[in-house]
Amino acid sequence: MLHLNCKFSPHKKDEEVYLFGNPPYLGYPKQDKQQKQDMENVFLNTNIKYKKLDYITCWFVKGVRYLRLTKARLCFVSTNSICQGEQVSILWPSLLKISAIDYAYKTFKWSNSAKNNLNYSPETPKSPSNT
């Protein structure tokens, strides 16, 4: 299990690292006390006003931080909520100053075990040094 406070790095210069996970997709009102503490810890020392952001945004922030230290690329499948509506102006300006989106796909229906088969939007940020 990968926790938000986990640290990792490749063992060799050109070694590939794959991380898989299924973090909870929770808006701020549905986060428990520990998840709210995770949000506070991840967004510490940023100018992002995170209190209205979904919990999944922690993985985007931590991923972009990792990109800055490596030649890595990341791929996320995420909910629409961080790519439209009020969360866009809160999250993306800061992340796009230090990363870029390599590609994105429109929302698609994905058969899964989630209640009502949620729609997803994949996003792939990358470091500007990788362009």
Shape: globular
Tally of alpha and pi helices:
3
Q: Please tell me how large the radius of gyration is.
A: 15 Å
Approximately what portion of the residues adopt beta-strand conformation? 5-15%
Q: Bin the helical content.
A: 25-40%
The helix/strand series, from N terminus to C terminus, equals: HHEHEEE
Average per-residue pLDDT, rounded, comes to 77
Largest sheet: 4 strands, antiparallel
Count of distinct structural domains: 1
Termini separation (Å)?
Answer: 31 Å
β-strand number: 4
Outline the low-pLDDT stretches.
none
Counting helices, strands and paired strands, the structural category is alpha+beta
What key attributes describe this structure?
alpha+beta; four-stranded antiparallel beta sheet
Structure description:
The chain is of the alpha+beta class. The protein has one domain. The chain is built from 3 helices and 4 strands.
Would you summarize the structure shown here?
This protein is an alpha+beta fold and 131 residues long. It has 3 helices and 4 strands.
Strands, helices and their partners?
Elements: H1 33-43, H2 57-69, E1 76-78, H3 86-98, E2 100-104, E3 108-109, E4 119-126
Antiparallel strand pairs: 1-4, 2-4, 3-4
